[in-house]
Design brief:
The chain has 23 helices and 17 strands. The protein has helices at about 5-10, 45-125, 130-145, 150-165, 165-170, 180-190, 215-230, 305-325, 340-350, 385-390, 405-410, 425-430, 435-440, 475-490, 515-525, 540-550, 565-575, 590-595, 605-615, 625-630, 635-645, 650-660, 665-680; strands at about 200-205, 235-240, 250-255, 260-265, 270-280, 280-290, 330-335, 360-365, 370-375, 405, 415-420, 445-450, 500-505, 530-535, 555-560, 575-580, 600-605. The N and C termini lie far apart (about 130 Å).
């Protein structure tokens, strides 16, 4: 029979409902009455014994069945308990998992909030460099004066304050830059610490600036010089047209100034939007014409029939913006014919509008494009044609019925910087002035020669990340590693003792291909390895180079027509000599990079042509020109190879001296411009 323990442990099912359709009535078992005497009821003893024995057997079977049932019930109970325990454990684990998931979701949300806060702080200026913060403050000052919140004089004082205290101002106004103009103005008024002015305020009015818009050498010149000037404590900003094709992702903090401004053109006042931002640490203002919106909504910068109208509008608008914003720069730096009209506009119209202390400096990158126009077109921007169409002003020296815009810039500027790395002032006037020789001769005291610089933050073998091993003039061992790496990359015979010559092509049309073929073949006969690198995107250049490659098959010659940045740096680092199309390469700057990387720049041209290139005895030349001409400029490739083989110690001294020279934007180029600014401020 079941014990109490069994009853407590196992739930006994209720008896079936006798009225259920699925339940059948149970029959009662037969009842046997056994007497103690043997005779009763007509049964003998044998029969009685048999019945008793059978009854005992039935009882044993019944008891056995009950035992088995009890065991099964115990097993079921035990399994049920285990199942309950497992369910309880799983429920507990599920609760733990849910809590962990909730915790992870909370942490994720915290991270998202953190990211959002950091992004907001980034937009607010937190973490920006001090120069960028200063420029954001200066641009806010522009906005306040354009909206009439402060006067032009107050704006000028605030700008000078920012310029003289860049570091202090950046720290003081880091957080308040995102506040409203009224609060910002209040802080500016309380920030009264001033010191003596130590630098120039220069505004470039130009049509190009890298990396935003780059057609020629002007773009890298504006950015390189501006950054160098600011590194030396001067305040520099740039005014550009807002070209529709321009990618403004490079502009930090681009925003539209709340109040626009009007500029004069074609007899009327026309509205303009002004956008501001920071590029390469330089404050930039973009002028967007509203009425003449098509002027700069085109596919390219130059080459249209109305270029005179386009850039004259921009020049006049730039001056009107400077006056309206209350800026009082020390120097307006203008460039080429496109903004040369600023000179006449400034002295005839704007000088008496609060710019009495400002002077004009014009940069000429070449004299090939001067812009000759009908005199009456000068009236479009408010100038008086009869007053300017004179031999001593804008009248062209050859086509006297026209005005020459570049000539006007030369006449009306206080200084003219001619950017040329190799030529002297005298040679430029006599040989490269393109009919402007009389004008340049009259104004030669204004002329200054400045060399191009190059970006030594990108091009420096001592910290170049593209090189397998860095090196410098103090420790040049890494250059050998770079040479071997270049040889392996191009499957050339790997020997550090081999002389390796690199050559970069921009335009093959400027090269005597037969002469180049002879130069290369003469070098390879001496075991020299030559790498010819094509960097032009012109299909004509590609075709010519492919033809040249078929013509010049040599195991020591390699052609590269898809130049990546890494291989470009490696070619300079691995080469002993770099063949140059010209030593005056403002776009590619091959000679400058070659010198820095310990590769001698040698001209492709024959020795006779080289000698003729250096007959100029005018010593008013750049330091770069003097260094090149005295070391490598008068040398052919054959002569260079002879010196390497016959006098290696002397050659190595030349290479180390070249690497130690500083021809970056911060060096001679910047110094020449600062001297020019200083001179015109004394006028």
């Amino acid at each position: 029979m079941l014990t109490m323990t069994s009853l407590n442990a196992v739930t006994i099912p209720s008896p079936p409902n006798p009225t259920s359709a699925h339940c059948k009535p149970l029959r009662a078992p037969p009842v046997c009455c056994l007497r103690k005497n043997r005779g009763g009821n007509g049964l003998n003893n044998k029969g009685s014994s048999h019945v008793e024995s059978e009854g005992l057997d039935n009882m044993e079977i019944h008891q056995s069945a009950n035992g088995e049932l009890e065991v099964k019930r115990n097993d079921i109970g035990r399994l049920f308990i285990e199942a309950q325990q497992n369910i309880f454990y799983l429920n507990k684990q599920r609760l733990v998992a849910v809590e962990e998931l909730n915790k992870a979701n909370r942490e994720k949300q915290l991270l998202l909030d953190r990211i959002e806060r950091l992004e907001a702080e980034k937009q607010a200026g937190v973490g920006k460099d001090k120069l960028s913060l200063c420029w954001e403050l200066l641009l806010r000052i522009d906005s306040m004066v354009l909206s009439g919140m402060i006067s032009a004089g107050e704006a000028s004082d605030f700008r000078r304050l920012v310029m003289d205290h860049k570091v202090i101002v950046a720290d003081a106004f880091n957080e308040i830059l995102q506040k409203k103009d009224a609060e910002l103005l209040s802080e500016l008024l309380h920030f009264s610490d001033r010191s003596k002015k130590s630098g120039f305020h220069v505004i470039h009015i130009c049509t190009e600036m890298s990396p935003l818009v780059s057609v020629g050498s002007l773009a890298t010149y504006v950015t390189g010089l501006s950054c160098a000037l600011q590194r030396k404590g001067h305040l520099v900003e740039v005014i550009l047209p807002k070209y529709a094709f321009m990618d403004l992702d490079e502009v930090q903090g681009l925003q539209q100034i709340k109040a626009g401004f009007y500029s004069y053109f074609n007899g009327q006042q026309h509205g303009n939007r002004i956008w501001t931002g920071v590029v390469s640490g330089i404050g930039v203002s973009f002028i967007e014409p509203l009425y003449y919106s098509s002027f700069f909504s085109r596919e390219k910068v130059y080459g249209y029939s109305d270029d005179f109208e386009r850039f004259t509008y921009f020049s006049r608008a730039s001056l009107d913006y400077i006056v309206k914003s209350g800026k009082q720069p020390d120097v307006l730096h203008i460039h080429n014919w496109e903004t040369a009209i600023v000179g006449p506009l400034f002295w005839d119209i704007h000088v008496n509008q609060g710019l009495g202390g400002t002077r004009i400096l014009l940069t000429c990158h070449d004299f090939n494009s001067q812009c000759l126009e009908q005199p009456d077109k000068l009236s479009l921007c408010g100038l008086d044609p009869p007053r300017l169409h004179r031999p001593d002003r804008l009248q062209d020296n050859t086509k006297t019925h026209l005005v020459n815009i570049l000539k006007g810039g030369i006449v009306y500027s206080n200084k003219v910087v001619i950017v040329s790395s190799m030529n002297s002032k005298g040679r430029i006037i006599s040989s490269f002035s393109q009919e402007l020789k009389p004008t340049l001769s009259i104004h030669q005291d204004k002329l200054v020669i400045a060399p191009y610089g190059f970006d030594n933050t990108t091009w420096d073998p001592s910290k170049d990340n593209f090189l397998p091993e860095n090196y410098s003039a103090e420790d040049i061992k890494g250059k050998t590693v770079c040479k071997v790496a270049l040889q392996q990359h191009l499957a050339l015979s790997g020997s550090a003792s081999s002389i390796l010559v690199g050559c970069f092509f921009a335009e093959l049309s400027d090269i005597d291909m037969e002469n180049l073929k002879a130069v290369v073949q003469n070098a390879t006969r001496r075991g020299v390895q030559v790498i010819l690198v094509e960097i032009s995107k012109s299909s004509i250049t590609n075709t010519k180079l492919e033809s040249f490659q078929e013509l010049l098959k040599d195991q020591n010659v390699r052609f590269i027509n898809r130049l990546g940045e890494a291989i470009s740096h490696l070619v300079f680092a691995g080469s002993d000599i770099i063949l140059c199309q010209s030593f005056h390469e403002p776009d590619l700057q091959v000679p400058l990079k070659a010198l820095k990387y310990g590769a001698a720049p040698v001209a492709i041209t024959s020795i006779d042509n080289i000698s003729r290139n250096f007959v100029d005895h005018d010593y008013e030349r750049t330091k770069f020109s003097q260094f090149i001409s005295s070391n490598f400029g008068k040398m052919s490739l054959s002569q260079a190879l002879d010196e390497i083989e016959n006098n290696p110690s002397r050659w190595n001294r030349k290479i180390l001296a070249a690497m130690a020279m500083d021809f970056s934007w911060d060096a001679e180029c910047c110094d020449v411009h600062v001297s020019a600014y200083t001179a015109i401020k004394k006028l």
